[in-house]
Amino acid sequence: MCFIAVAVAVHPSFPFVVAANRDEVFDRPAAPLSFWETHPRLAAGRDLVAGGTWLGLTSEGRFAALTNCRTENVSPKSGDQSRGVLVRDYLLNHLETRTAIDARSIETLLGYGGFNLVAGTTSELNLLCNATGFSSVCSQGLITLSNTPPQNQWPKTRHGKVEFSSLLEQSHDQGTLVTRLFDFLRDPSPRTTGLEDSIVDPKESHQRVLFVKGTAYGTRASTVILVDQCGRVTFQERSFDSEANCFDESALEFVLEPKPTTIRS
């Protein structure tokens, strides 16, 4: 089960920070992080089955990431449309999708399985959950998501938020922060306390761990993104196999395009 942590206007040197794990079946084909050949301003991995993506950033500063979401009444299974296409279309600035998400009009986003979606710019993000109708906006603070609605976090998201915040406070330079965030994402140890054990199904160990190990399903990719005060982007991804071995690393560095200014006479 996926994990996404985002910090907006929290770190003094990096006003936008992302640390995320993508959990998926290992036999689903995917391309690693790159600039897309057909859309060279889009940096993202790619689902080679439906053509979408789980997380990406554009050179214009649009960001989006998504997890499956489940409740007692909403299944995490796919709907008529792939959820990854929703992320892709937002990043590619498709008018209908972008307008609905920026207005947080969840009721117009039909045909998808249950999802949590964080989408917007590196300075302001929309958070939407179609499983519960929840929505909010964040221009400063921390967001942590997994596969349950934002209002009902699992131990991995609750403790992960505390650990993520601590790493941001303690890591001042880029190299240290990147290293510590990847170590954080790679940790398979359970996040739990005695009280939480009573509300988490013992069979659902993924509710407690950030890095999920499994032979058929588990953590396939870890992603770290840093954007500094000048708009310089460090975007790195590590890919893992079914034995939890890192077999590939991708890294992109680019500068966000400056926003156009209005010249008044």
Please tell me about this protein's structure.
The strands form 2 sheets. Strands 3-4-5-6-7-8-9 form a 7-stranded antiparallel β-sheet, covered by helices on one side. Strands 10-1-2-11-12-13 form a 6-stranded antiparallel β-sheet, covered by helices on one side. The chain has one domain (3-255): Penicillin V Acylase, Chain A (4-Layer Sandwich), CATH 3.60.60.10. It has helices at 83-91, 95-102, 155-170, 174-185, 194-197; strands at 3-8, 16-25, 30-35, 42-47, 55-58, 62-68, 115-121, 125-129, 134-138, 141-145, 217-227, 232-240, 246-255. The radius of gyration is 18 Å and the shape is globular. The longest helix is centred in the middle third of the chain and has 16 residues, at 155-170. The model is unreliable at 195-200 and 261-265 (pLDDT under 50). The chain is of the alpha+beta class and 265 residues long. 18% of the residues lie in helices and 34% in strands. Helix 1 (83-91) packs across helix 2 and helix 3 (155-170) packs antiparallel against helix 4 (174-185). Strand 5 (55-58) and strand 6 form a beta hairpin. It contains 5 helices and 13 strands.
What key phrases describe this protein's structure?
5 helices, 265 residues, seven-stranded antiparallel sheet, 18% helix, Penicillin V Acylase, Chain A, six-stranded antiparallel sheet, alpha+beta
